[in-house]
Amino acid sequence: MESQTTKFETTSFGKIAYSESGDGDVAVFVHGLGLSSHFWRHQFAALNGKRRCIAPDLMAHGETEIAADQDVSFHVQADMILDLLDKLNIETFDLVGNDSGGAIAQLMIAKAPDRVRSLVLTNCDVQNNWPPVALGEIREAARSGVLASQFGKFAETPDLFRADGSIAELVYEDRKMATDANLRRYLAPLNVDADRRGAFDRYVGHQDHAQLTNIEADLRAFDAPALIVWGTDDVFFPTKWAYWLQGTFPNAQPVIELEGAKLFFPEERAEALNSHIHEFWSA
């Protein structure tokens, strides 16, 4: 059962869609490439008794509406989320990120470290593994202006997304997690029109590890509590990067490995992740 409510807030970056559930101290969840706030629905259902959970649809994703020429690079995505939180009169928050959303979370720390009360990172871009080698072809397709159209077609033919050797096999332990309904919800918005396709292709094409290597000093100075939960079977983000993060954040807890889990385990192994987040927040 979903407990999210989709709302909209007009900011200088556009009309930003976000999901919200629960009361109390705020926790902000940042999704990754080709997804939306829907990715965090199981966290909202389980954790809204502990936090007021908020998850934006990144620019070029979900129901967020932006101008055709809006900058959607990762630094600007971080600025957008901080601006959205300003509009909602939210000063401090716990921060949770996955995939490229984890990279954006790191950029938010560099921009506003005093606002982040605690950090949870799952498998995501780290340091000079951005984009990961396994994602190079996808980035080049984006730079050629064809990736959004390709992803959009998966919404119409979901069996292709779940086929042997497909993307679903790379990000899920069980390809059945990529249901027809979820694929339509995630991927159909990417292919709505030429402006949306262009924005998504720019989002993916902008990936450049210099954005993270340049903020290493900021990450090393971030002394709020940090938790790293990592799936061990991720072809994009090997476990070594979880330990790099642990060694970088001064107040990081020991890495929690989820044996056999892949990139999108927050959706697939929600109960395990939610348990670790609940314990972390309680402490």
- Summed up, the domain count is 1
What structural class is derived from the secondary structure elements?
A: alpha/beta
Cα gyration radius (Å): 17 Å
At the third CATH level, what is the topology name? Rossmann fold
Helix content: 40-55%
Low-confidence stretches: none
**Termini, distance in Å?**
28 Å
How many strands appear in the DSSP assignment?
Answer: 8
Q: What's the level 1 CATH class?
A: Alpha Beta
Strand content: 15-25%
Write the element-wise H/E pattern from the N-terminal end onward.
EEEHEHEHEHHHHHHHHEHEHH
Q: Outline, from the CA principal axes?
A: globular
Main beta sheet, described? 8 strands, mixed
Average of the residue pLDDT scores: 94
Enumerate the strands of the largest sheet in spatial order, edge to edge or round the barrel: 1-2-4-3-5-6-7-8
Query: What is the multimeric organization of the chains shown?
Result: single chain
Instruction: Please name the fourth-level CATH homologous superfamily.
Output: Alpha/Beta hydrolase fold, catalytic domain
Q: What is the number of helical segments per DSSP (H or I, 4+ residues)?
A: 14
Description:
The chain has 283 residues and is α/β, with parallel strands linked by helices. It has a single domain (5-144, 194-282), classed as Alpha/Beta hydrolase fold, catalytic domain (Rossmann fold, 3-Layer(aba) Sandwich), CATH 3.40.50.1820. Helix content is 41%, strand content 18%. It has 14 helices and eight strands. An eight-stranded mixed β-sheet has the order 1-2-4-3-5-6-7-8, sandwiched between helices. A hairpin with a 2-residue loop joins strand 1 (5-11) and strand 2 (14-21). Helix 1 packs across helix 14 and helix 5 runs antiparallel to helix 8. The longest helix has 14 residues, at 74-87. The radius of gyration is 17 Å and the shape is globular.
